[in-house]
Give the backbone structure.
Amino acid sequence: MQKDIRRGATIFTVAGVILLGFIYLVVQYSRFNTPVGIGDTAPNIQERTVSGQSFSLEALRGKPVLLNFFTTWCQPCIEETPDLISFAKQYGNDIHVVMIDRGDGPVMVQQYVSKYHIPSNITVVLSPDDKWSSRYGVTGQPETFFITADGAVMSHLIGPLAESQMLSYAKAAGCRCHPTQRQRGFVEEGG
């Protein structure tokens, strides 16, 4: 009888430990695999840029961010690129423009940057294993996030955006978007 009680207590204890371990794993899994939502703090992307520099999304705090997930072979991404470039040229002093590759690799991304003349004021980030798409809930491309200056996700948009849409969402994310002097028609002497 005493033996049966000890055996029952042991089984109950082992089952409890296994259950607690399972609950811990579920919590940890959901913590790291639940996509970011509107109003949540944007996951801190830490990767290398196409030029080999270290990149940290948190380091951009202080100004809003346009974060664009793309692939080099995606036709809507290619069609959106001129609008991204124009937007960055006009408002790049007021908002960070970041493009993040979805796993195409450095050679293909560098070719894309060269072919479409991506200017240096657009940060192009490499994500060799595309690990950030799941953290952001990205299922296709292009997908764009507007992030406030303090790091909160303000919007998540699926599909290509026109420059006017970028401006509207950037303002909603807190951008005090002012066109550069050259874009407003002012040309400095000698320029």
Observations:
- The chain has a mean pLDDT of 87.
- The longest helix spans residues 2-33.
- The chain has two domains: 1-34, 46-172.
